[in-house]
């Protein structure tokens, strides 16, 4: 059978081949004249034979800061129990960290947390090189969670350099050095200063009531159990805070706290000198007015309607500064030296931070609905 027009393919074959050839020549011409020729072999791409990490100067500074301070951070072991009568030995009850802050008279002085050394019958400090030294407790203060211990200074070569915790800026580098979990000696964590003006509630006797508001530095550098008492340093390797895991928030991550060195300094001085922190006292048993049911504000307190904050005197200690000044039960303290006293925390803050032993202060009280002022000569709490 024969297709109709069987010779017609000859009419389009040769023109089609010619068109294909012309198209190929056109493409080759375009590729040749375009800038950045894809087939340019005059400047071949060279691959580096080495891969360089990001050389961040800040990381170099961090390394230098850690090297400078790390030798002054020690591990502290708390041993409890033991009796000479039955021959039993003290057993390890816990551990933490500490910072060597000075050497004097053949002794090395170490700052740590009160809760690290609390109830210890024996203390041991382990230097970064593994050397173990018997430690002696000079004194501790549960209010600020600070303690000072000493060890034989022979063989102690590193002392931390004290920095300035009053001039910190949020976002500045913060480096924590300590011994988390009791066996990870010399662990370094890095973060930033999250806040420089935090206060955290402290329940000293664990009765569910806040006894004190402690001043802290907030950081996102990890501070874990065992890090307590360790160093928080700045980018210069200087001590700016004493880490405290006790006041950390267990339910959240990325929030740690340290006691600033400027707040710790007077406590350390008192612990060295007296073995305790001697604070001025008035001699009253105080309760915040806000903690008393409002029906008692009229009877027996007889307070004017505008008085809604203050401290109620529930008891007056015999022969105390308060008794000598004429302060009585159910008086309501609203100010001292013109500074408002709204809660028990305010009262303690004034006494522990602003006042001095033997100082005479003007105390504003309400008694029987009448505003009065009395002068109290502050005593010394023992």
Automatic annotation (TrEMBL):
Keyword Transferase included in the entry's annotation: no
Family statement drawn from the similarity comment of this UniProt entry: Belongs to the peptidase S1C family.
Domain of life: Bacteria
TM region positions: 12-34
UniProt cross-references to InterPro entries, sorted A to Z: Chloro_Bact_Ser_Proteases, PDZ, PDZ_sf, Peptidase_S1_PA, Peptidase_S1_PA_chymotrypsin, Peptidase_S1C
Keywords per UniProt: Hydrolase, Membrane, Protease, Serine protease, Transmembrane, Transmembrane helix
Presence of the UniProt keyword Calcium in the record: no
GO MF terms, alphabetically ordered: serine-type endopeptidase activity
Protein name according to UniProt: Serine protease
Organism, as annotated: Neobacillus piezotolerans
A GO biological-process term: proteolysis
Domain PDZ: 280-369
